[in-house]
Specification:
alpha+beta; Collagenase (Catalytic Domain); 5-stranded mixed β-sheet; Peptidase M3A/M3B catalytic domain-containing protein; protease; metal-binding
Length: 471
C-alpha cells in the first residue's frame, strides 16, 4: 500500500493533482537532464594543442568533446577530455537544481522529510541514516585496499609516463585496464570475435530453455509497431504455458538515441476481469555498434555481460505474472529488482555456460577455458578502487536528495563528497554529468554484494555441479 501512498493516493483532490503535476515535471526534468549529459562540449580549436585535436570531432573553428576518452593512452588527451566534457554547464546545473527541488517538494507533499526517505521506504535500509552508516562503514573497510589499488595504478602510470606520475581522476579507468591486460592478457579485443551478437542471443536462448523451459522466437512486427527498422521483436514462449509476452530489442546506436542501456515496460502483465492474462511487452535498449557488410556486431566482454544483465530484467518482467500490473516484474522492491539481473551476470561469467555459445564468428572455434578464467580473474584487479567510486556516487546522491535547501551548491557538494569518499583530488571547474544515473544505478551496484552469497547463488543455479539445472 505504501507504494500508492508515496505517489499521493491518500491526499485530498487538490494535493493529488499537485502530486501528479510534480511527478510529470520530475519526469520531464529527469529526461532533459539525462539527455543533456550526452551533449558534446565545445571549445575553440586554438585552445587545444594541435597534436591531440585529431582525437576529437572538428566543427569549423571549434572542437567537440563528446566523452571522456578513457581508453586513450595519451594522458593529455584524457585530461583534456575530462576537463572539457565535465566543465559545468549552466543549463545542466539549473536543470539538476530544479529536479532536486521538485523531488523534495513531492516528498514533503506526500509526508516525507526528504526525497531520500521517500525513495528508501520499503527497502532493507529503511532510511537515509542507515544508508549513510553503511556507506561510511564500507568506505572505511575499503580504505586500505583502495589505497593499495591507487598505489598500483600510480606505479603503472610512473612506468609508462615517468614525467607525470601524479594520479588524477582521469587515470584509473585507463591504467587499471592496462594492469588487467598485462597480468591476465585480457584485452577486450581478444574476446570480441567470440561474442557476436547472434551467438550471445543464442546463448541466452539455450540458458532460458534449460533453466525455465522458455524459448525466444523472432517475430515480424506489424506495420508501425516498432519505432525503428532495426528493432527486433521477440516472442517469449514457455514449453507448457505458451506465449508469455514480447521483448522489443532496440540494440543498435543511432542519432538522438539515449546513451543508456536499460529495460523498460511498455505494457505490464495483469489478470484481466475475464480471467485471461494481459501479456507484458518490454523494451531492452542497448547502444551496440551496428553490423557492417561483412562483419557482425561483436561484443566486448563488458557488453556481453551487460546484455545478460538487462535480459535478466526482461525475463523478470516475463515471469512475474501478478494479478495487478502495478506490481508486475521489475515493479517490485528495489532490493529485489536487481537480483535476477545480477544472477544472469554469474551465468555470463561461468565457463560451463559461456562455452555453449562463445564461438569465433569466422572459424567456429570455441572460446578457450583459460581465456574465460583469465577474464574472471582480471575483474578482481583494482576492484576496491572501483567500488570506492560507487560508494562516492551513492553518498553524493544521498546528500543531493537529503535535507533541502542544500547547504551549498551542487558543485561544492560534489567536491566535498569526492574528497571524503574517493581519495583522488577534485578537479576545479568540473562537475559529474552522470549524477541522475547515479541515483538509480549506484545502490543496486552495492546491494547485490550483500544479497547474493555463493551459497544462495548455488541454490538459485540448481547447484554448483550443474548450473543449467532448474531449481
Amino acid at each position: 500500500m505504501f507504494d500508492f501512498e508515496i505517489s499521493g493516493i491518500h491526499l485530498d483532490r487538490e494535493k493529488r493533482k499537485r502530486a501528479v503535476d510534480l511527478n510529470v515535471k520530475i519526469l520531464d526534468l529527469s529526461s532533459a537532464f539525462l539527455m543533456g549529459t550526452h551533449f558534446p562540449s565545445r571549445i575553440e580549436k586554438h585552445l587545444l594543442p594541435e597534436h591531440i585535436r585529431h582525437h576529437f570531432e572538428l566543427a569549423g573553428d571549434h572542437v567537440l568533446v563528446d566523452g571522456l576518452r578513457a581508453e586513450v593512452p595519451d594522458d593529455l588527451v584524457r585530461e583534456a577530455a575530462y576537463k572539457i566534457f565535465l566543465y559545468p554547464n549552466a543549463g545542466q546545473l539549473k536543470c539538476l537544481e530544479e529536479l532536486l527541488s521538485n523531488r523534495d517538494l513531492l516528498a514533503k507533499l506526500v509526508g516525507y522529510s526528504t526525497y531520500s526517505h521517500r525513495a528508501l521506504q520499503g527497502t532493507m535500509a529503511k532510511n537515509p541514516e542507515t544508508v549513510m552508516q553503511f556507506l561510511e562503514k564500507l568506505s572505511d573497510k575499503l580504505s586500505e585496499r583502495t589505497i593499495k589499488d591507487f598505489e598500483m595504478i600510480r606505479g603503472m602510470k610512473m612506468k609508462l609516463n615517468p614525467q607525470n606520475s601524479e594520479l588524477m581522476p582521469w587515470d584509473p579507468p585507463y591504467y587499471s585496464g592496462v594492469l588487467r591486460a598485462e597480468r591476465y592478457n585480457s584485452e577486450p579485443s581478444l574476446y570480441c570475435p567470440f561474442f557476436s551478437l547472434g551467438a550471445c542471443m543464442e546463448g541466452l536462448n539455450i540458458l532460458f530453455n534449460r533453466l525455465f523451459g522458455i524459448s525466444l522466437y523472432v517475430e515480424q512486427p506489424a506495420k508501425g509497431e516498432v519505432w525503428c527498422e532495426d528493432v527486433r521483436k521477440l516472442a517469449v514462449v514457455h514449453e507448457s504455458e505458451g506465449l508469455l509476452g514480447y521483448i522489443y530489442c532496440d540494440f543498435f546506436q543511432r542519432a538522438d538515441k539515449p546513451h543508456q542501456d536499460c529495460h523498460f515496460t511498455i505494457r505490464g502483465g495483469r489478470l484481466k476481469e475475464d480471467g485471461d492474462y494481459q501479456l507484458p511487452a518490454v523494451v531492452l535498449m542497448l547502444n551496440l555498434p551496428c553490423p557492417a557488410k561483412d562483419l557482425p556486431t561483436l561484443l566486448t566482454p563488458g557488453m556481453m555481460e551487460n546484455l545478460f544483465h538487462e535480459m535478466g530484467h526482461a525475463m523478470h518482467s516475463m515471469l512475474g505474472r501478478t494479478r495487478y500490473q502495478h506490481v508486475t516484474g521489475t515493479r517490485c522492491p528495489t532490493d529485489f529488482a536487481e537480483v535476477p539481473s545480477i544472477l544472469m551476470e554469474y551465468f555470463a561469467n561461468d565457463y560451463r555456460v559461456v562455452h555453449q555459445f562463445a564461438r569465433h564468428y569466422q572459424t567456429g572455434q570455441s572460446l578457450p577455458r583459460n581465456m574465460v578464467s583469465r577474464l574472471c580473474e582480471s575483474k578482481k584487479v583494482c576492484a576496491a578502487a572501483d567500488m570506492q567510486l560507487q560508494v562516492f556516487y551513492a553518498a553524493l546522491d544521498q546528500i543531493y536528495h537529503g535535507k533541502h535547501p542544500l547547504r551549498s551548491s551542487t558543485t561544492d557538494i560534489l567536491r566535498d563528497t569526492q574528497e571524503k569518499f574517493y581519495g583522488l583530488p577534485y578537479v576545479p571547474n568540473t562537475g559529474h554529468v552522470g549524477s541522475e544515473r547515479w541515483y538509480w544505478d549506484s545502490h543496486p551496484t552495492l546491494k547485490p554484494c550483500v544479497l547474493i552469497s555463493p551459497g544462495s547463488v548455488r541454490k538459485l543455479r540448481g547447484g554448483e555441479e550443474c548450473p543449467w539445472v532448474r531449481a
